[in-house]
Design brief:
- This protein is of the alpha+beta class and 119 residues long.
- Helices cover 27% and strands 17% of the residues.
- The longest helix has 15 residues.
- The relative contact order is 0.08.
């Protein structure tokens, strides 16, 4: 309920009589969030989200107080400089999902899991 949108409730999406668990699975949360986006701005992803890109450079222009972003297309490796200038830049790198483990604790966690630890 803490992640329920005021303008697109769980009842709107799942139906008024659907019983939901306390913690929804990721896939269900993703479906709910995407449905809200599609309801309010059907072309949101095409207009505002750039997938399969790597940010190569972000520069701040103090004169106009805006950011400029240079990215590469991951598949083609083509570099594209966006002429748009942005007021804000948000770092949303997936690499931060991997925890830092100090070297003196690595031996303790070495056999803790069979796969990578990601949060």
């Amino acid at each position: 309920e803490a992640l329920e949108f005021f303008d697109y409730t769980f009842a709107d999406h799942f139906g008024p009589t659907t019983k939901l668990p306390t913690f929804l699975p990721r896939g269900v949360v993703h479906e709910y969030m995407m449905a809200r986006v599609q309801k309010h701005c059907p072309d949101f992803l095409q207009r505002f989200v750039k997938l399969n890109t790597k940010v190569d450079k972000v520069t701040y222009n103090a004169e106009c107080q805006k950011f400029s972003v240079t990215v590469s297309d991951v598949a083609s490796h083509k570099v594209k400089h966006y002429d748009n200038h942005y007021d804000k830049v948000i770092w949303g790198a997936g690499e931060e999902a991997y925890p830092y483990v100090p070297s003196d604790l690595q031996a303790v966690f070495q056999n803790f899991t069979k796969g990578p630890a990601v949060h």
